[in-house]
Amino acid sequence: MSKSLEMGQDEEFVYEVLLEKPNLSVAALSDTLGWPPERVSAAFNKLIHLASLGPGDETSKSRIARIRRSLISFLDRQEEELMRRQKEIATSRQVIFQLLAEYAETDAADHHGQTRRLEGMEAIQSLIRTMAGTCTSEVAVFAPGGGQPTESLDAAKPLDSAVLERGVRVRYVYLDSVRNDGATTEYAQWLTQEGGQVRTVPHLPTRLLIYDRALAIVPVNPQVADAAVIALEDLGVVSALQALFERTWEQASPLGEDRARDAHGLTAQERAVLELLARGFTDEMIARKLAVSVRTVRRMTASLMTRLNAGSRFQAGVLAVARNWLRS
C-alpha cells in the first residue's frame, strides 16, 4: 500500500473499534479508547481522507471499501444523534411558546393578576417606562432582529440611562449581525460605557425583557413583537425565562471583542449555520433567523463545506457532528 493510504496507530485503533462497534458516537469512542474527543476527531478525519482516496491495487481497494462501510455506518449513527438533539431543542422551544400561548388565551383573572395582555405600542411602551422607573436590581433583554431601528434606540436611551444611574444591572443580548450595524453598535458602546453589559449570539428565540427577576414581557407573536405582549409575574414562568436568558448569556460573546473561535476554528455564528444546515434550513431561512444577508449565508456555507470536504449542505452538518464540531 502507498504511504498515502497507510494508517497511523490512532487511526488503526479507531478503525478496529468501528469495525466491531459501528454505532458508537464520538463521545463513546472517547470513553472506549480513553482518549480526549480531539484525539478521536483527528483520527476520524484521517479515516475520512483515506476513504476518499482512489486505491491502485486490490488489497488497498478492499481495505478502503471496509473503511468506507464503517464510516457510512458511523455517519448514519451521527445523523440520527444530530436529528435527536435538534428534535429536543425544537421540543423545548415548543413547550415555552405553548406555555406563553396558553397564558395569552386565558383570562388574566384566572392567574390572580399574574399575567396581563397589552395591545398596541402606546400600552406596551407605557409598561416599559413604568418598569424602567421602578426596577431596583436588574434588567435583562433579548433584542432579536439584527440592527435596531433608530427610533427604538432613541426611545430606549433615556430609560436605560435612568436605570443605570440608579445602579441597576442592565444586560442586553443582540444578534451577532448587529456588529455590522453602526447605530446599534454605537448604542451598545454607549451602554457599556455607562455600566451596562452587551453580548451577542447567532440567533435568539424571541424578544424578551425581564425586570428584577420578577416580571417578564414577551410578545404574543414573535414575528410581530410590537403588536401585543404578555406581562408575566408568575414566579415559575419568570424563573424559566430567566434561566433561558442566563444560559444564552453564558454562551454569548461580549460586543467589542473579536468573536471567539473554538478549538475547531468556528465562530458561534458559523456553528449556528452548521446546525441549521443539518436541520434542512434553506439559505433564505438561515438568513432570516440570523438576521444577515443571503449572500453572507452562502459565503459562510461554501467556506464550511470546503473545510469539511462535504459534498452537500446536509452532509456538512452530519460531518460536523462526526468530527465533534457541534456541541452536544
TrEMBL record:
Pfam families: GerE. GO terms for molecular function: DNA binding. Residues 259-324 form the HTH luxR-type domain. GO terms for biological process: regulation of DNA-templated transcription. SMART domains: HTH_LUXR. This is Helix-turn-helix transcriptional regulator.
